[in-house]
Amino acid sequence: MAERLLDTAVVQRLRYVRQLGLAHLVYPGATHSRFEHALGAHHLALRALRNLRESGQIGADAGDDPAVVAAAALLHDVGHYPFSHALEEIGVPNHEAVARPLVTTGEVAQVLREGIADDAPERVHALICGVSESPLGGLISGSIDLDKIDYLKRDALMCGVPYGEIDEDRLIHAMVLVNDPSTGRLRVGIRDKGLAALESLLFAKYQMYRNVYWHHACRAATAMYKRLVELAIADHTLRVDDVASYTDEGLLHALDSGASLEAHALLAAIRRRRLFKRAFEAPAAHLAMEQLEWISDDRARTRRAEEALASALGLAAGDVLLDFPAKTQMLGLDLPVLARDGSVRHLTHDGLPGAIDLPRMSDELYRSARYLRVFTARRTVAERSTVLGVLENC
Question: What band does 208 get if pLDDT is binned at 50, 70 and 90?
């Protein structure tokens, strides 16, 4: 069945959607695709399911749940927009919502119904969205889901950085099905012998955000791309409902064919790697972060602030871009831990006394990885008082 799913158009599109968006402008090796990642996640799902089966965690009563989980691992990214997560930051529907018709109708749904069960498409989509009732749902969406394990290791390898070291074998062999002490429901947890490997996963995630995903030049390119797509949507060159059907290059071609002068200039700059420059940056640890969260989720207010900053800096409208990326659960934890004595404890953001300390540091690590940045079309220096003064009044 996996081969039939791979042959569908929605999965084949992932060959032409880069896993890390515009990060290849900074890390030249980061040209790997979401198709490769989907294969990797599916491979890890098969390994995890085999380990749970061989250890007696999955029995005959599991029915077709393992097959649904394996399919979900392969299909979990089919709703992704071109250039990765960037467009979700401008308020378009998230990729899980986009995936619904792709998974529950058409050729993918037909393959799932013929290969598993009539309700398989809906169950696969529930797993992708993290709302499944399946005890195995944690393999697809959760603190130790296989998606994270694959993309962290793959992204680090392709970028040529040493930050994605994860003991995946130990993590997979430490996975176990246990009754969650807070709900009484059976779900994926971890044996306490795997806590050190879990800690490496969390720290790798922090390091990749700090050094790759939120690298200043990656964020400059992302901010330019978001503005470019916003302009195209505003002037009806592009329909929101059509964006997820494009490949990376297909979208750039569509934008080029009907671009306004401002959009055309942005597109040309991205293609030639003429990125906006940092005029100001400050780590979230040095800011009243809660008062600036609107930059991440209120695009209309952000645009007004960008125009006000351009005026204050003596720049043309459109020459300033604000960036304050958000990932509130970067180091979030929520899973049961099986101790050697058979007891089960609930590991959350607060950690476990004497077992794992990294979650206790998560807020501080998040603040140190996250920066407020002002990017400008030409090299400019923006004073802190000017930037914060404008933002306070917007």
Answer: very high
pTM across the whole model = 0.93
Number of residues written out for the chain: 394
DSSP label of 377: S
| 326: region left, alpha or beta (phi > 0 left; psi from -120 to 50 alpha) | beta
Q: Per residue in 157-182, is it b (16+ CB within 10 Å) or e — as a string?
A: ebbebebbebbbebbbbbbbbbebee
CA–CA dist 183, 180 (Å, integer): 6
Pair 224, 275: CB distance under 8 Å: yes
Structure token digits, residue 361: 């540091």
Find, among 149, 141, 152, 124, the residue nearest to 187 by Cα. Answer: 141
Cα 258 from Cα 232, distance rounded (Å): 8
The enclosing H or E element of 390 equals helix 384-392
Indicate if the pLDDT at residue 358 is higher than 60: no
Contact 87, 81 (CB under 8 A): yes
CA 177 to the chain's CA centroid: 26
- Judge whether 211 and 163 are in contact, CB under 8 Å: yes
For 1-42, how does the pLDDT look when each residue is reduced to its tens digit (9 = 90+)?
Answer: 999 999 999 999 999 999 999 999 999 999 999 999 999 999
Asked whether 279 and 377 are in contact (CB, 8 A), the reply is no
The bridge status of strand 175-179 relative to strand 277-283 is unpaired
CA distance readout (Å), 95 to 45, 129, 158, 241, 317 = 21, 9, 23, 12, 31
- The number of C-alpha atoms within 13 Å of 299 and in the hemisphere containing its C-beta is 13
Query: Cα(326)–Cα(305) distance, rounded to whole angstroms?
Result: 18
Structure tokens at 26: 């900074």
